[in-house]
Amino acid sequence: MAEELTGRIDRSVGRAIDWLRTMLPQPDGWDGIWERIRIDRDEIVRWVRPDCTAEARELFSTAADVLDRPELRPVAEGMGGWLLGVQDPAGSFPFYRLHSSAPASQQRGAGDDTSGTLYPNDNGKVLELLSLWSQARPAADRLADFLIECQHDDGWFPMGGVDRTGPCFVAWPIAGLARHAAVSGSPRSVEAAARAVEYLGSLQLPDGRMRTTYEVQGGEDWRPASSEAAESLRAFSLAHRLLGIDLSARIDGVAGFLHGLTTEDGAIRNCDDRSRDASQQNDASLTDLVYTGGYALHGWLDAWRATGDRSHLDAATGLARFLVDIQVDDPEVAWDGAWRGSYDVDRQQWRGRANQSNPIDEGGAFSVYTGWTTATIANGLLRLRAELTDGHRPD
After folding, report:
1. Given pLDDT bands bounded at 50, 70 and 90, which one contains residue 386?
2. pTM here?
3. How far apart are CA 44 and CA 360, in angstroms?
4. CATH topology of domain 2-102+118-390
């Protein structure tokens, strides 16, 4: 059975990479990768995002060896070159860079330009991926220092004068700082991650669910309750394993909540009856693939590595099968080989929007993301592949 799934993973990841290559402004990767396709508008959003590019770079670099596709290696190097080139002197990475080919409709006026906005979740994600890339150690050190300098005494990470107290803005810096601490031995990263873990733990409810950013600070209305649970599972599991902080109870609690949302097919519903009010994204028939699916796949694997609890590995395997099953397979569309942003697990069709207090619709069935969804899922599939084929436990 493992051999059968491994073969399906190889085909799935290969198809995902083929689609991602169509989203490169330059075939050599040196202009990074575009953010997404908006199906309802029939347009590519020509924002080149550091976090999307970092995820795609990691995928291409790994797949060059695992799938024996050496032609991907120089493309990974190109994306890495672009990524390092947009790091700010202070160490941070911007929300996006507008590509020179972007149409006028995607240009923002001076008073409405969000490209330079700094987000702790995006920067935490980039830090984790830089920490896994040995050649990027100096860039990772600078970014870790930036996050540490930003950190509030209570453990969360305000940026640009904006308070970011929701769990999605804390879980990712924990993941990044824990990875950085593991490769660098930096006591400052250990201390900052531990402080953030303590704060994140304060947002966990008795039933294991995480309070959402919607509940904590009235924002991120379009993220389902499943999302911040999946991201927190990663944060707790990485801190437990890499920093030696005993977070067994935290892991068990949030994993229990996610197990309760999991269908027989392995998908994770957005919410249940008890968590419908935690977000405006409250349709329990939907599974979210932008903020939940790929990160839950990684989260299950991280929880398995942290605890040795086989139920987490089984959940990762079930979710992987579901994701491979629903991958877009239609050569007539421009997103063939990708995953759309939300899927109805009851009707078994693509459905849903992420436009709740969110005019740019950052998710839902009409968004096809490079990072956040397709590269994230494909990276998780390769991690699971390594686990299934030779018992090797990849980072």
Report:
1. very high
2. 0.97
3. 13
4. Glycosyltransferase (1.50.10)
